[in-house]
Structure formats: C-alpha cells, structure tokens
Amino acid sequence: MNNNSEKNKPTIFYAKNSETQKRSRSTQQKMTGRKDNFKKDSFQSKTKIRQSVNDRIEVFKPKTNKTGTEKLNHNLESNFKYGQFVEHDSPWQKKVRDNEQTPTYGYDEYRQRKEETLVYSENSCKAVFKHRRSAIVKLFITQDMTYQFKDLISWLVNQRLGYDVVSVDQITKITQTEHHGGICLIVKKRIPLTLFDYLEKNSGKNQDCVLAIDDVNNPHNLGGIIRSAAFYGVNGVILRQTNLLNSGAAMRIAEGGIEAIEPIKSDDFVASLERLKQHDYQIVALLPCPVKSIKSSEIHQIKFNKKVAIVIFQQINRKLVECADVVVHLHGNDNMAALNISVATGILLSTL
User: Fold this and answer.
1) How far apart are the first and last CA of the chain?
2) Which contiguous run of DSSP H or E holds residue 112?
3) pLDDT band at 155 (very low <50, low <70, confident <90, very high)
4) Is domain 86-188 classified as CATH 3.30.1330.30?
5) Could you give the dihedral angle defined by the CA atoms of residues 154, 156, 159 and 162, in that order, rounded to the nearest 10 degrees?
6) Burial annotation 84-98 (CB, 10 A radius, 16+ → b, else e)
7) Poorest-confidence range of 46-55, 183-192, 224-233?
8) pLDDT average, residue stretch 129-156
9) Looking at the chain, which residues constitute the CATH 3.30.1330.30 domain(s)?
10) What is the per-residue pLDDT across 5-34, written as a single tens digit (0 to 9) for each?
11) What's the whole-number mean pLDDT along residues 56-75?
C-alpha cells in the first residue's frame, strides 16, 4: 500500500529559473510601458506648453488701473479688432493709429537720447523745416494739423521718411507735455561750434552780436532769451552746457528762434571773453539788479560798438564782471527789485 500510494503521488518540478524569467519579462514590460507612457506624457506636456504659450501670447493684455471713463473707452474700443484703424477725413487719406507709439525705431535708446531730440509746437517745427530739414528723422502729427504741414508731409514722402498721424493722447505721451501744439518732430541735435570756429566763420563781418549766458538753467528763461536774441539779430550764443538748447521746453518758448542762432560751447568764460576782446568785441555785462559794490551805468548812458558780446547772469559772477568793458543795470523802482532775465535781455538788445 505504501509503495502504490507513493507511485500515485504527482511529481513536483521546482522551476525557479522559469519564475525569474517570467518576473523579468513582467518587469521589462512594465518598464517599457512606463517609458511609452512617459513619452506620451512628455509629448502631450510639450504640446500643452506650446498651446499654452501661444494662447498666452494671443490673449495677453497688460494690466492697468483704469478709471471709470477709461473703462468706458476701453469697452468701446474692444468692439474693434486690435490693430484696426479709424478713418478720418484728411487730404492725405491717412489713418489715425490708436496703438502705442514710441519715438524709438531700430536703434538703442541711449544712442537716440545722445544724438536726437524732440521738437514740438507749430512755430518750432516750421523753423526746423525751414533751416535744417535734413536733420528731421520722423514726424508725429494730429489729424487737425495735417493741412497746415502738408508741405512737410509731402517732403517726408519724397524723402521716404516716416510720419504717423496719431491721436492727441499719443502725442502727449511722446512729448510728455500737453503744450505740443499737435505736432512733434524727432530731429538730430546740432553740433555746437567752438569759439575759434565761430570767429573764423564770421571774420569778415564788421557788425556782430553774441550772447554769453552764464548759469541760466531754466529752459523757459533760456527760451525767452533766445527768442529775443533771434528777434534782434543776435548771431551766436555761448554756453557751458549747449545741450540746454535741445530742451523741448526751451525750443517751444523760443518759437523757432534757436534755429537762427549758432550754439557756441565754452568751458572757460573768462578765456572766451578775453579772446573776444582780441577780435575787437565790446564786452557788456548785464546785471539782473543794481549792486552797490559794483560800479554800473544805465542803458541810455552807454555807447555800444559794432561788435558786442553781452554777458547775462542768473547770479552775478564777479570774475566775469571784471572782464567786462561796460556794466549795465536796468533802473526800476521800489515796487519790483528786478525784471525777469529774459525780459531784461530783450530791453538791452532793443537799444543796440
């Protein structure tokens, strides 16, 4: 019985190698499945990223804190597609751009600030077009001003230079002032002369008048002085910082007078006045107010030469007063101690 029962027992095979192979296959299948899933996920993630980037670029709008009126205008403008222009009646059939306008095109901002400047207001832009139109780079103008400057626009078209008809708000952002007059030019700055070059250029003249402006940094006062100087035929203005003449505010107040006067750079006013004396210039110092310690005369007591260099002070510089041949002051009364420096300069120039 025992032998028959043992024979009837099933045989058992221990297949350890087969189990490990099965396990290894199952692990390989799992790994390949993970890799395939990873590839699918990575591809889907990349497509999702690309889609999200594209969607972000298309949908992106800058956040702004808008007032009630700005929100209303924004809702009205949202009815139009981005980049669509609004037509207006114009002799040039130009369209007004509502998108952002910036004066920088194609080169870095530092270079533009160094080499170019903004000129705005009607008379200033007309003077630039009259005296040095070759320095014009670009024009920004409102719809209402296009007819007045049709000659300028046609010249820009012939020269293949850019101009944009923009809204009042856009030109206000470009000029950073509300006193732009509806027009703004990007213009190359003038290169100032040295005193030696100026004297050589005007050596054949028997009559000349030059202003030497010391420490007048207010662009409105400087523009008023230049306007009076251009009105009375002054040919040159000496400054330590000639870049002050490139100020948009100074140009606007000067009403185009800056274009008719040569800028002269001088780092040493004493040496410059001595050189002018050597070329037969009479040095006249205009005091902003009478000073007891400085001997001065009134205008009707002065006899001016044909060549005159007028020194103008915001604050009196005694070294420059000592270089002067004649010291002048304007006599007033006790109600007002002194006049504005630009007004006093105009009164003095009217007597020459």
Assistant:
1) 153
2) helix 109-115
3) very high
4) yes
5) -140
6) eeeeeebeeebebbb
7) 46-55
8) 92
9) 86-188
10) 555 555 544 444 444 454 555 555 555 555
11) 46
The β-bridge relationship of strands 95-96 and 86-87 is antiparallel
Distance CA 76, CA 100 (A): 17
Residue showing tokens 């980049």: 83
210, 330 Cβ separation under 8 angstroms? no
Output the DSSP codes for 39-61: HHHHHHHHHHHHHHHHHHHHH--
Tokens 């001997």, residue? 295
Q: Where in the chain is the domain with CATH 3.40.1280.10?
A: 193-350
Structure tokens, 315: 């604050």
- Tokens 């929100």 belong to 71
d(C-alpha 308, C-alpha 236), whole Å: 11
Kindly state the percentage of the chain with pLDDT values over 70.
68
- The amino acid sitting at 246 is N
Query: Is the separation of the CB atoms in 251 and 223 below 8 Å?
Result: yes
Q: Give the whole-angstrom CA distance, residue 112 versus residue 3.
A: 111
Class of domain 193-350: alpha beta
**4's tokens:** 């028959």
pLDDT tens across 167-210, in order? 999 999 998 888 898 999 999 998 899 999 999 998 888 899 99
